[in-house]
Amino acid sequence: MRDWYNQIKPRMRNNMEPSGNAWFSYPKTPQLISKDYITMAEDAGYAKGGQVQHYNKGGLTRLAESAYDILKLTPEKVEAWRKLNAKPYKQQQDPQLAQALEAYMTGKISQADYLRIMNERRPIRPLTEVPAAHSNIDIVSALDKNKADKGILGLNLQVPEGMRVGNRLDIPAYERYGTYVDTMHDPAGKPIGYGHTGHLKDVEFQSDPNKAIRVGLGTREQALTPMAVEEGSGKGPFAMMVGNQQTTKDEEVRRMLAEALKDPTWRQIGMNPYRGSQFYDKADMQPVWSAAEKIQAGPLVLARDVEKTSWKDPRLKTKYGVNYAQGGLTHL
Fold first, then answer.
1. In this structure, how many other beta carbons lie within 10 angstroms of the beta carbon of residue 239?
2. What is the rounded CA–CA span in Å between residue 305 and residue 327?
3. What is the chain's Cα-based Rg?
4. I want to staple 287 with a disulfide (CB 3.0 to 4.6 A). Which of 94, 170, 278, 283 is the partner?
């Protein structure tokens, strides 16, 4: 595979790097594949060739060998890991906050009163260090099998530089095992793979205030308020950070995060639908809509050159006639 790359490289004009995709079964008319992908494939044992599943959409490329096979995981090993790491991380709405939210929605208390109760019950706690890293075995074992089969970035999946993707945390992996797994979505919102960290540029922070406010009421099963019985909801994949993929190694992203924590030009970003409907700056609690760049490991999200407004922004208006504010932690 490396020999193939070295044969193609001299044919490139202006010292360009080969990039794109390749069908190894058609050597007479190959397209090009990135150098990073060759390194990934070699690390997975494909140095002398091997089957590659190829996807034309945006240059997404996935090895045919599954993460389970590469890591030599069996259902028995995964089950043993899950029993060892099972923890009650599932987050639910605080009854007093749900009641305060409904009182605010129905005009019985002011937004100021609601925010005072919110900050008393769920105070903001900015992170001061980069969360501990998980192993590939941790990531794969924490994920449902059908999710792991989509591919793990840097193990058996490559997403090309510049592809427009979405990042968010996988909720079940955290709530069941306390494991932070980054989910990557395509532009249509479909999951395409999973990984350890996220690095995007030209970022949009997207959410849905009507869905968020229903989460704030608690689930219908909790029945914390009369309105929750009718319209309450659990967490779901409606909040996402969308941007241009950067193929930065996980170790480098973590190094960048450690440095950025000391740099006030990088803002720590939070999001929790139990508190509000939009991503926000943890320093001043104002809603965040875009950023030049975003780096992330688990719940730690840092962004630079952010666009912020206030909680009176009309984009935050819900069908109930109120703006749902304000933010919280990034445990989506």
1. 24
2. 19
3. 22
4. 278
Contact 61, 55 (CB under 8 A): yes
Query: Number of C-alpha atoms within 13 angstroms, CB side, residue 225?
Result: 24
Q: Please report the pLDDT score of residue 275 as a whole number.
A: 76
Is the pTM above the cut of 0.90? Answer: no
Q: Which residues contact 332 (CB under 8 A, 6 or more apart)?
A: 168, 169, 171, 235, 237, 239, 271, 272, 273
Distances (CA, A) of 290 to 141, 228, 269: 33, 31, 11
Q: Is the peptide bond before 326 cis (omega within 30 degrees of 0)?
A: yes
CA distance readout (Å), 203 to 62, 251, 317: 25, 21, 22
Which secondary structure element, helix H or strand E, spans residue 75, and what is its range? helix 75-85
| Whether 7 contacts 27, CB under 8 Å | no
- DSSP character string of 202-230: EEEEE--HHHHHHHHT--TTT--SHHHHH
Cβ neighbourhood burial of 230 (10 Å; 0-12, 13-18, 19+): exposed
Count CA within 13 A, CB hemisphere, residue 90: 9
How does residue 81 score in pLDDT terms, banded at 50, 70 and 90?
A: very high
CB-CB contact of 200 with 165 (8 Å): yes
Residue type, 129: E
Residues 277 and 207 sit within 8 Å (Cβ to Cβ): yes
Longest dimension (CA), the chain: 73
Judged by phi (left if over 0) then psi (alpha if -120 to 50, else beta), residue 224 lies in: alpha
Using CA atoms of 107, 113, 114, 120 in order, give the dihedral in degrees to the nearest 10: -160
Whole-angstrom CA distances from 170 to 108, 152, 183, 210 are: 36, 13, 6, 21
What are the residue ranges of helices labelled H in 111-225?
111-121, 136-142, 145-148, 171-177, 209-216
Closest to 326 measured CA to CA, from 270, 254, 243: 270
Amino acid 107 reads G
SS3 192: strand
